[in-house]
Amino acid sequence: MSWLKRIDLAIITGALLGVGGVLIAFVGNPVNSGICISCFLENLAGALQLQGELRMSYIRPELIGFVLGAFVVAKKTGRFKVTGGSSPIIRFFLGFFIIVGCAVFIGCPIKMILRLAAGDLTAVVAVVGMMFGVWCGARYIKAGVFLERERNMPRINGYIFPFLAFLLLIFIFFQPVFIKQGQTGPAAMHAPVLLSLALGLILGGFSQRSGLCITGGFRNYFLFREKTLLSGVITFFVTALLVSLATNQFNLGLNGQPASHMSHGWTFLAMTLVGLASVIIDGCPFRQVIKSGQGDIDAGITTVGMLAGAALVISWSMRSTSAGPEFAGKIAVMSGLILCLLVVVSYRKNVRTAR
Amino acid sequence: MDRLDKFNFILLVVLILVTTGMLVQHELNASKNTEPVLDGKEAMIKQYKEQIARDAVTYKEVVVAKNENRHQDAITMLDEIIRSHPDNPQSYVLKAEIIHEKGQLAKAIATYRIAIEMDPDLVDDKTPIFIGDSVMDLITVARGKLNREKKLKPNDKTLALALENIYYLQRRIAGGCE
Question: Is residue B38 situated within a structural domain?
């Protein structure tokens, strides 16, 4: 892959994500939800009995593939660098609230693009909300708001996440009694295990090299007018759109779209939260999972926060259904935005003090 | 490697071997003792078939009344069952079917919504209780009719609510990760 330029890699990764994301739904994953980090984490939380909704309990092999694919490629290319120690508790809770935002919209930024590419017009508001959140984040970065730099850590820290991913893989094949797998609802909608795993490994590997990140693409454009990652995001959308059309999965409209709702104001706020928090912690949910496989402990802490969020959005109903957002979900989105602003205020103060 | 490192390394190897041995022994014992168990999907289908059999007894008289077109009697009986067994969505499914037969489309759709909110598996085609096709048929008829009425009465809140229920059911039947 070394002969490829970064922009080529971003475009290839975007294309793979678009093709893979739509086709994996075609062969079994939930409709419009071929790849969705928040849904996958909710499913994982259920499988580990961190939440009790059996319909949402399944270890998604794609998730394991993302981590292990990124790990293998990072090791092979000398990019496995074990770093961490940058505001871990802030990252944990921002990860938590990112999943709250995703659950209120019903989907992570990747699913947002997959939904849009499948003709779901309710996702347009989500795109606008996420872009607004990223734009705010970029403005805050310009104003001197950023979490402190990470530092090198002992190497064992970097192996924990790939080991956990490997352990989950063993759980898939040996099915110990404490692992739950639902037989109805989203849990029962899945592509063949080996196919899902292969897709995850390929996407994990390419995403590690390209650094593809949905929020990062917009952030870099807003900050520096830099289009490398954005070109990958656009390729992702265009490819997903073409494959949706080719596989007859395209259904343009607002009404009757799978796993959607019509509370556009809350969709906007939820995805603003996702965009803003993702900029503060440097990466969308997908990017956090990839980075946790390449030795980034901060991303690992964020991913643990996202898993905690995935469990509690179900247990505490901090999410939306087809009927719209639950009250607890609305309060959680507001709380997430408050936390983001508190972080912004306190870290900007730190920077000023340092100056 | 000093003595402490050597000691720790040996201890680590011993702990890993002992843990692995415990796991292997546990698995071997478990495989000897287990009776044939149903896999998850078979267990789910068996569970639903048992529920269907129980419901057949519970709703026997309701179904008789329904088949004899004694709609009001059937609804009265269902309301009593709902009072004593408020958690069974089958009451609402039957009630919706009867209301549909009476021609009250909007009310039937609202009743189906209650049933599906109680048990989303009703619109999962992998389960034996799947009713998605019949609900979709009703939706297709009702959507056209209610949209035409909405054009005539744009401010009618009852119609707006009925259409909202239709879109809700469409979203549920469309599937997705919810």
Answer: no
Distance of CA A182 to the CA centre of its chain: 23
Interchain contact, A183 vs B176, CB within 8 Å: no
Whole-angstrom distance, CA of residue A135 vs CA of residue A338: 17
Residues facing A296 on adjacent strands: A83
Distance from CA of B41 to the nearest CA of A (A): 6
Whether pTM > 0.80 for this model: the answer is: yes
User: ∠ CA(A211), CA(A216), CA(A220), 5° rounding?
Assistant: 105
Q: How do residues B62-116 score in pLDDT, each as one tens digit?
A: 999 999 999 999 999 999 999 999 999 999 999 999 999 999 999 999 999 999 9
Under the banding of pLDDT at 50, 70 and 90, the label for residue A351 is: low
Lowest-confidence pick of A4-13, A176-185, A312-321? A4-13
Contacts of B168 in chain A (CB under 8 A): 322-323
ipTM value for the complex: 0.85
The Cα of B78 is separated from the nearest Cα of chain A by a number of Å equal to 26
| CB nearest A322 (choices: B40, B41, B172) | B172
- Name the interface residues of A facing B (CB cutoff 8 Å): 30-33, 36, 39, 42, 55-56, 106-107, 111, 181-186, 188-189, 255-262, 321-323
Name the residue with tokens 């009713």.
B131
**B124–A107 C-beta distance less than 8 A:** no
Q: Closest residue of A to B163, CA-based?
A: A255
Cα distance between residue A265 and residue B153, in whole Å = 27
Could you tell me if residue B86 is inside a domain? yes
B43 close contact with A: CB closer than 8 A: yes
Domain membership flag for residue B32:
no
CB distance from B171 to chain A under 8 Å? Answer: yes
Q: Which residues of A touch B41 (CB under 8 A)?
A: 183, 188
Q: Total domain count for chain B?
A: 1
What sign results for the dihedral spanned by CA atoms B132, B133, B138, B141?
A: positive
* B28 within a domain of the structure (yes/no): no
The shortest C-alpha distance from A116 to chain B (Å) reads 14
Sole residue written with tokens 């983001």: A340
Which phi and psi (to 5°) does residue B70 adopt? -90, 70
B106: domain CATH number is: 1.25.40.10
Range of the domain at B156: 46-174
